[in-house]
Specification:
Distance between the termini: 24 Å
Largest sheet: 7 strands, mixed
Radius of gyration: 16 Å
Number of strands: 7
Order of helices and strands: EEHEHEHHEHHEHE
Strand order of the largest sheet: 1-2-3-4-5-6-7
Structural class: alpha/beta
Length: 203
């Protein structure tokens, strides 16, 4: 079994699936089999909720101040497990701050609106904007919803802003500076906060 809970530069992360509708050109998964203190983040078989809960139980979360759902897959691809494990963590430590790192395609993946339910569980939702328009977005993310993914991601972001106090959109510093600035304007139009991530640091 791959690592479900791991740490990276002092942060605690939960890797609950390897499934993802994107195959991003810059994805950290292309750099190795694991990051941080994890030995392996690739699952031979996708974990079920009992295995995720056991991994949570085996790691002492009672004093952890914050945790991030972000591993080698898109967390909303395991939507039911994501909801159940986030709720489980809340019951173990009601004071914990939870962040969801997502590609923002949850509504397409799950074929239903998901922003409100996710916003009720997560203190912060960080969405990968990646590029400032649909054509460039499809090219860099190589997603399975070409022509639809970019606008769906923006709608999801706007919906999250309605319900969650801390919504962020990110780009990775592998794209040109002019695209970063255009992406910043796109982000501001949704009401989310903007952040440029470092490819070299993997965060």
């Amino acid at each position: 079994m791959a690592d479900i809970v791991y740490t990276l530069e002092g942060g605690v992360y939960l890797n609950i699936t390897n499934k993802c509708p994107c195959n991003c050109a810059f994805c950290i998964r292309s750099k190795g089999d694991a990051v941080g203190d994890a030995k392996k983040l690739w699952f031979d078989n996708e974990p079920d909720i009992s295995e995720i809960k056991k991994a949570i139980d085996d790691f002492d979360f009672t004093k952890v101040k914050s945790a991030v759902f972000c591993g080698y897959g898109e967390p909303t691809n395991a939507y039911d497990n994501l909801i159940q494990s986030a709720d489980y963590l809340r019951k173990i430590n009601p004071e914990i701050k939870l962040r969801l790192n997502t590609n923002g395609l949850s509504d397409l993946i799950n074929e239903k609106p998901t922003a409100k339910e996710l916003s009720e569980l997560f203190d912060t939702i960080s969405i990968s904007l990646n590029e400032p328009d649909s054509e460039k977005y499809d090219k860099i993310t190589r997603n399975i919803y070409p022509g639809k993914a970019f606008n769906a991601m923006l709608r999801f972001t706007r919906d999250c802003v309605k319900y969650c106090k801390d919504v962020r959109m990110t780009v990775v510093d592998v794209i040109p500076e002019e695209d970063i600035e255009q992406a910043r304007l796109i982000c501001e139009s949704t009401g989310a906060h903007f952040r440029v991530r470092s490819f070299e640091k993997g965060r």
